[in-house]
Amino acid sequence: MSTAVLAQMREYDHEEVVFFQDKSVGLRAIVAIHDTTLGPALGGTRMWHYANEDEALKDVLRLSRGMTYKAAAAGLNLGGGKAVIIGDPKKDKSELLFRTYGRFLNSLNGRYITAEDVGTDVNDMEYIFMETDYVVGIEKTQGGSGNPAPFTSLGVFQAMKVCLHEVFGEESFKNKTVAVQGVGQVGSNLIRRLKAAGAKVLASDIDIEKLTKTQAELGFEPVDAKAIYKTPCDIFAPCAMGGVVNNETVNLLHCKIIAGSANNQLERPEHAKMLKERGILYAPDYVVNAGGLINVYLELEGYSRERAERMTRGIYYNLKKVLEIAKEKGICTEDATNLMVEERLKKLAHTQTTFQPQRKTVLSHIHNRRKQYSL
Ligand code: NAD
Questions:
Q1: Is the shortest distance between the CB of 237 and ligand 1 below 6 Å?
Q2: Percentage of the chain lying above the pLDDT 70 cut
Q3: What does the pLDDT look like over 335-373, one tens digit per residue?
Q4: Is residue 23 part of a domain?
Q5: Is residue 35 part of a domain?
């Protein structure tokens, strides 16, 4: 087993993988720290009923590496990490489980900072916060930054403007149709922005009750969940699930641009090339959806909503740079983003070694939050 873990760590270039278990509370967790060249590793804790440990390990290795790339693309002083708790989020959660997990995280001394992810929520983060400061995305009343979704949607909106300019020569949403997949926290916030900017909005959701309720509130044209792929539109905005650009859908898509918040929109890397061949501009998800990460990151530097908004607006320039690289090198946008990130990591590796105590500045506010809260 240990050989297999080290082999996988070598393959993805991970720094550290930590296994935690406490039988008495049913905790089995893995933390993967991928790269701390730019700062402490930050990424959510996913709770999932993995079929076995191998599946959990694969997931945490893949997700933590993704966080390194997302933080680096957003220009943050953050490394990439992620954690998984093996268990059923509907049945296996308890105060004790998350508090025990929080104590384990404390032992990493800030090399890894956690947040919410699939299967965990703000209540779980509050239990973790009872035991350690190394958690972000907690409630505003506790010194946290609150719901990240409005920032994620702002970043997506900024990215759409870049794409509109690239494809149509102007950033205007007037006379443009946007098809939003998923009217959840990000999707509904994005629809508000799009409507205010004058776009025609179509939207789908598998939760029909939610779709109807949101439609009554925001006013858009509902589309069948399966039909959305082939619905003619200018921008397709995946704001639901990953893997939506796949062998089945890639040739159905009837859009000029793809820009949305969902993580891992491409099922496989080659789908980026297929989109390019079809003349569809793909705005890489991890550049576009970094607004939420930017927002929680600022809990580490002293939170300010204005700064979070300003930095999230910067996604506009990050994506512009990606498009420039893609054009200059004649490559797809996904490859261009990877090049941009790897270059930043390489350059900064010369000036910074792996996580060191001098990064205290990045972590100082994380401890102050508790002091402010207890005042
Ligand atoms: P959410 O759970 O609030 O909303 C997701 C919505 O998608 C739900 O209404 C769900 O019913 C719907 N859905 C699921 N499958 C669907 C399908 N096949 N077709 C249409 N609708 C479907 O989630 P969210 O916070 O709005 O996040 C949306 C996506 O963006 C997720 O992939 C998430 O990982 C990603 N993301 C979110 C944030 C954030 O700040 N919340 C940040 C980065 C990335």
A1: no
A2: 94
A3: 999 999 999 988 888 776 544 544 555 666 777 777 665
A4: yes
A5: yes
Write down the pLDDT at residue 375: 42
161 among known catalytic residues: no
Statement to judge: residues 265 and 234 lie in one domain:
yes
| Ligand 1 centroid – CA 121 distance (Å) | 14
Please pick, among 23, 70, 82, 174, the residue that the annotation labels catalytic. 82
Tens-place pLDDT, residues 238-268: 999 889 999 999 999 999 999 999 988 999 9
Q: Is 186 in the pocket of ligand 1 (CB under 6 A)?
A: yes
Q: pTM of the full predicted structure?
A: 0.91
Return the best residue to mutate from 261, 264, 285, 312 for the ligand 1 pocket (most ligand atoms within 8 A of CB): 261
> In angstroms, what is the span from residue 276 Cα to ligand 1's centroid?
25
| pLDDT on residue 373 | 57
Ligand 1 centroid vs 180 CA: distance in angstroms? Answer: 11
Return the pLDDT at 372. Answer: 62
Between CA 48 and CA 323 the distance in angstroms is: 36
- Token match 């500045």: residue? 361
Residues 180 and 305 in one domain: yes
177 C-beta closer than 6 A to ligand 1: no
Domain that holds residue 253: 149-344
Angle between helices 53-73 and 2-12 (to 10 degrees): 20
Same domain membership, residue 122 and residue 166: no
Mutate to test the pocket of ligand 1, among 63, 118, 136, 152 (most ligand atoms within 8 A of CB): 152
pLDDT tens, 159-215? Answer: 999 999 999 999 999 999 999 999 999 999 999 999 999 999 999 999 999 999 999
CA pair distance 197, 189, nearest whole angstrom: 13
